[in-house]
Amino acid sequence: MPTATSRDICFRGIPGPVRLLPGAAEGTDALLRALRRVLGCWPHHIPAIATGTSPSFLVEPLAGGAFRLHGASPEATDFTPFHPQDAVARLRPGYSLEPSLTCLACTLAVELVAVYETQHTSQMGIHAAAAVRDGRTVLFCGTHKAGKSALMARLLLDGWQGLGDDMLALSPAGELFSYGFAPRLRLPLPECESLAPLRGPSSPYAACGDDYYLCCDPARLPMLPWGTLLPVDAVVILDRQEDPAAACGLLPQARQDDMRDLLLRFLLRDGRAGLALRTACDLLQRVPCRVLRYRTLDEAAALLDGWQAAAFSPGLPQPQPVVPAVTDDLAAPCPPREGVRPPRAFRRRHARGVRRPPDALPAAWRQRPGVIFRQDAAGGFLARDEEAAGRDGRVFRLNGMGCALWQLWEEPGSDAELAALLAEAFPQAGLPRIRRDVTALRQRLCAAGFLEQVETS
Q: What is the β-pairing status of strands 249-251 and 206-209?
């Protein structure tokens, strides 16, 4: 039950309020104002007194300016339900310990998205940023510390409109949904004159900050409203370079790498790998994807400002990757291409049957129903259908030889049988190596639920 001095914030689309418990050094009202400033774009209201509704989250102030964030919703990430009357509940593992108000605001933002997406299952969270310029929406992806947030802040100060930083939602139709999060910047800020307005404790663009992070104020930057829904016009993968001699620019890369870089950004909390696979495939079939290789924020901004439609033409030649021996990587999917089949040499032999080698294993394996397969000339990807039992959210990447194996597994086959077929098609690889690769790939695909064992007589 709420206490007389606790305060609630009710966010749109969240079943219960965020309840602030008394005890903050600066006072509950001051804490409320600070959180409202950081999360200001997410529509919310403040009841005059705390409601009797069961909260989704409880914020418990601690000494020294730290907080415990308790999740009372089962959708929250590894949070133990909090019961104020139960003193032991405060000591159980599972709450999130936040050392500062800035950390609290950032974690709360992520958890609000997690709960919201359980109520709106057609959307998938994606760890990326997006901005709009001249009517074009660019989705920015990249690895940890690739510079997404800093570049977003640089672009917003230069007149771009922000769709969101760090957390967005992507629909199966390829539309981005904005939560209105302004950039959260890691300190110290990069050396960039354009970021000067963000420096200093009195910056008008700062909502809050600590020794490690600065949260920008969404009300002071040109952020589009919460709930804005826009189609993606281009995908840009950020690749920040430390080498001053590195070649920079907006560059194409292999389509499989585009898919890997995009799919690794999906937040598949409920294992919807199949839906993510379809969505990424469809998106990258319709829009261009480029790598933005840059050294400084000003250089990146100049490359983007010089962007012309022709520069992102999907007709630009794509580099062809080198296909190694059979491997599988947990990564992303690529667009489907009908008619890509295994080499004729072993397709014909498979069709008419092959004599079982003496050392063939008695067990055989075949494709499990409900697996989604996408392939192009560079390779393919596998994912379990999101409606099938045993979802685990894994997406496997296959090279060309792995794709051939997968298609051979349309019919039951043992490791020895398939290795013999591949050895005839690829004699330069050698049978022992192919046999090891076939067995290793089969074991991983079985563990992920893509193959099932079939007993042979």
A: unpaired
